[in-house]
Specification:
The chain has helices at 2-5, 8-18, 24-34, 43-51, 60-81, 88-92, 94-113, 119-144, 151-175, 181-208, 223-228, 236-244, 252-260, 264-282, 289-300, 306-309. The chain is an all-alpha fold. The relative contact order is 0.12.
């Protein structure tokens, strides 16, 4: 993947040169993107561009714009949820954090407008950004409004949030390399299923391998708990009572113990494997082997520590 790594410094350079020099505070916020290591999701638009037969270098500005866009979405999310005390909003206040987020959002469109691509491609990619933002915002609103009370509700929410975000990254990369709607659609579907795979693993990690407080300790009701409430087992009514009474946080350890006694983890792993299967199938029409290999590596790499999450061997 040397061709891919060789493009990362160019992405960082675009971000560095696009961020206003007169605003040190913004440069500090964006510094995590400008310095090494670059976020792993940067591989998606670059590899998608090559997978459809394009020159991956044509996706450098698109990738930089996507990273700025992603930073904006994270800042918005942190301000709205205020559930991570190590986030920027806790250091500078919600108002300034929102201001940085809105600036990063504008920066993404500024970078895209200056991409050395045909005007028609820039318009198509710009519209893809806009359409995806509507989906992301709708998913966030469902989350904030508490509209995720069943597995089906939660699935729709993460399709609009995480699925749409990764679909955007891959579709925009493809748009930088081709006008073929079928190839662009294949990359979009790949990204959608990759996003759902990642969300499943994030939900699992936040319970069984949390970095800090678990989702249950924060009172969150995510896919593992919703799934365990959806089928018959000895602890089901107990789980439902905790959620109904909004008593998830005080009973976090008990809830985890009930999930450990069910087949929840194996179901989630099975669901993640099915999403990976659909992601890889979506790439079958793409012509470039090197680009597809990089995308394959991204999604299959998520399963490197599958044994740590698995309760017992999958049948």
């Amino acid at each position: 993947m040397l061709w891919l790594k060789a493009l990362y410094p160019k992405v960082r350079l675009v971000l560095d040169q696009s961020t206003p020099a007169f605003w040190p505070g913004l440069r500090e916020v964006m510094g995590g993107l400008i310095k090494e290591p670059i976020p792993t999701e940067a591989a998606l638009p670059l590899a998608s561009c090559r997978a459809v037969g394009g020159d991956a270098e044509d996706a450098v500005h698109v990738t930089a714009a996507l990273l700025a866009f992603s930073a904006a979405m994270r800042l918005y999310d942190d301000v709205e949820d205020q559930d991570r005390p190590d986030s920027l909003w806790a250091k500078v206040g919600p108002a300034r954090a929102f201001n940085f987020g809105s600036t990063a959002h504008v920066l993404s469109f500024d970078i895209l407008a200056k991409a050395p691509l045909a005007a028609s491609r820039i318009r198509a990619i710009n519209q893809c950004f806009i359409d995806s933002f509507y989906e992301l915002a709708a998913g966030q609103d469902r989350d904030l409004a508490g509209e995720t009370n069943t597995v089906e509700d939660y699935w729709l929410t993460i399709e609009l949030k995480t699925g749409a975000a990764f679909a955007l990254a891959c579709a925009c990369g493809a748009l930088a390399g081709t006008d073929d709607a079928a190839l662009i659609g294949g990359c979009r579907r790949f990204g959608h299923h990759v996003g759902l795979t990642l969300q499943i693993f994030n939900d699992m990690d936040s319970i069984w391998h949390p970095n800090g407080a678990s989702d249950f300790e924060c009172g969150k009701v995510t896919l593992p708990l919703l799934y365990a409430m959806s089928f018959d087992h000895p602890g089901r009514s107990e789980l439902i009572s905790y959620v109904s009474a909004k008593q998830v946080a005080p009973n976090a350890e008990r809830i985890k113990a009930i999930l450990d006694a069910t087949d929840t983890r194996n179901f989630l792993l099975w669901a993640a494997l099915k999403e990976r299967e659909q992601a890889l199938a979506a790439l079958s029409i793409c012509p470039d082997g090197e680009g597809k290999q990089a995308l394959y590596a991204y999604v299959t790499g998520m399963f490197g520590d599958i044994g740590a999450l698995q309760k017992e061997p999958l049948r």
